[in-house]
Amino acid sequence: xxxxxxxxxxxxxxxxxxSKLGPRAYLACFNGIVWRxxxxxxxxxxxxxxxxxxxxxxxxGLGYGMRNALGMPIQQPYETYxxxxxxxxxxxxGMILLFNAMQSSLSMVYDRxxxxxxxxxxxxxxxxxxxxxxxxxxxxxxxxxxYAFLAFIWLFxxxxxxxxxxxxxxxxxxxxxxLSILPAVVLSGLMxxxxxxxxxxxxxxxxxxxxxxxxxxFPMIFFSTSLNPLWRIKEGSETLWNVARFNPFTxxxxxxxxxxxxxIGPTDPARGLDPTHxxxxxxxxxxxxxxxxxxxxxxxxxxxxxxGPGGTGG
Amino acid sequence: xxxxxASATSTSENTPSVPALEVAGVSHSFGANKVxxxxxxxVPRGAMVVLLGLNGAGKSxxxxxxxxxxxxxxxxxxxxxxxxxxxxxxALQRLGVVFQSRTLDTDLTLAQNLTYHAALHGLxxxxxxxxxxxxxxxxxxxxxxxxxxxTLSGGQSRRVEIARSLLHRPGLLLLDEATVGLDIGSxxxxxxxxxxxxxxxxxxxxWATHLIDEVAPTxxxxxxxxxxxxxTGGVPGLLAQTKAESLSDAFRILTGTASGSKAKxxxxx
Lengths: 314, 269
Hints:
The complex is a heterodimer. By secondary structure, chain A is mainly α.
């Protein structure tokens, strides 16, 4: 029987035992969740624009504005003196990932409040798989945002140079760097997404989450190496240096910074990536992910104890 | 008060012995607050069972347990004989749900919403699209497949959610306050579609509501009040037990809201 004939008038109710969910079913579910996140993102043009404008404001306002006051000496992984704008780029990529992770969690809190989260969680697939798929949906969006940001910088530098303003040409990333950051971006997105997911499980209402955004995002960015290297922070304050050292976001930024210059792996031990960054990001990813899965577990997690998700009276 | 605890029985002689839903001795608490107390009920296949209760009776909590949003720690919940806690994958494959809150993506089209849900059940490609179209045809919205949900009325959105719940061919359909916020015409339309699904497709339906006028004389009724089941059975049995002339009077007598809380009960009807 052809597929068309089978589907001509399929039954609404199947009496047969449902088939086991095989790899193709898992793939269909994963693709469906990721595709929905991308579709939602593409339908929200203001979200796309704000994700692009935010790091650009930092780059042009702080980076180019303060470039002459904030010179950078030679340091790993850079081979020469760099302008401050070049130093900022990995931190801004990290910032895009952080904001996107928080935005995804914001949408999960919203989904919980509106009940849309329930439709995801009543799927027959394991909840851990559903949550990881949802995370990858958010990461896919984040990757699109990161490359849109990098493409804008590249195009803007060349377009302004053609018009005679060469000062915006200073961010010159080797072409391999655009490819080699991808694994670091995905891993960092997974870490920050898991962290935000765990955070969302502990937050009951959207209004509370807005407060946490202020208490989480900005401290994570400012108390890290996204705007200043560790040694310079140490010169200013030993206490802040210790905070920055133990801030997981520092390790995200450094992982991306070294990945830009293809320094992941034993290419040159003298200038290579400190394995601590990779280990911290991997470790934190595992920790936060387990926390999020635990929190969304119906028998043990915070959601069940509290009466969520999207709990309504009646 | 004589509390009727027998399982609701089917009106059809041809109904298979395994019920679409069986809830046996389920209790649930949030902290010290016990919201469900030894709840037992049964939904035969091909029958529509109305779960009647005031706001706060425990209906949504019961639904959350059936859908495994959180686990039942006492008693058992079985969907077509499969225990929700022990075999969640198989049980949830047989379950379709329409939640009280609106859960469609308003920026996406009807077809995109439905194919997303099909993916959540492992379906993709042409099969998912064909099932989505068929489900939309059943609820009378086949021609709107490519329009965005934002353009639909409240009643039409509900019908899309019903279509969505049918995509994976479930044996049990749960609807939690599905007509809240709808006008009378839309309510009747949604009810008609659901009754028709139960009658013609053999779907077991558990319809939770606080609106007494949604109960038809042939429906099976479960009255849930303050977390306890006060009655399960047919409408004639409920009228006979309470010696009431109307269903709303019977509900008030059964729940003890006949006096004092009369306004509350009237609001419920």
